[in-house]
Amino acid sequence: MQNVGYYIFILVAVVVAFIVVKKVASCMIKSMILLALVVALAAIYYLYFM
Fold first, then answer.
1. Cα–chain center distance at 10
2. How many angstroms separate the CA atoms of 18 and 24, rounded?
3. Phi-psi region for residue 36, left (φ > 0), alpha (ψ -120 to 50) or beta?
4. Is residue 2's pLDDT more than 70?
5. Three-state DSSP state, 35
6. What's the longest Cα–Cα distance across the chain?
7. pTM, to two decimals
8. What is the distance between the alpha carbons of residues 17 and 29, in angstroms, rounded to a whole number?
9. Gap between the Cα atoms of 40 and 27, Å rounded
10. Cα–Cα distance between 9 and 20 in angstroms, integer?
11. What span, in angstroms and rounded, lies between the C-alpha atoms of 47 and 26?
């Protein structure tokens, strides 16, 4: 019966890791999109208004 507890623990750990990675990846993707927009706006400003 100790193996069943071990497998349940591993299953819970995998689910928690998946949720954490999903939250972090989502945040990183949003940050990268925001950074790309800022760079694009800075380039447009520099090329057309300077």
1. 23
2. 10
3. alpha
4. no
5. helix
6. 73
7. 0.56
8. 18
9. 20
10. 16
11. 32
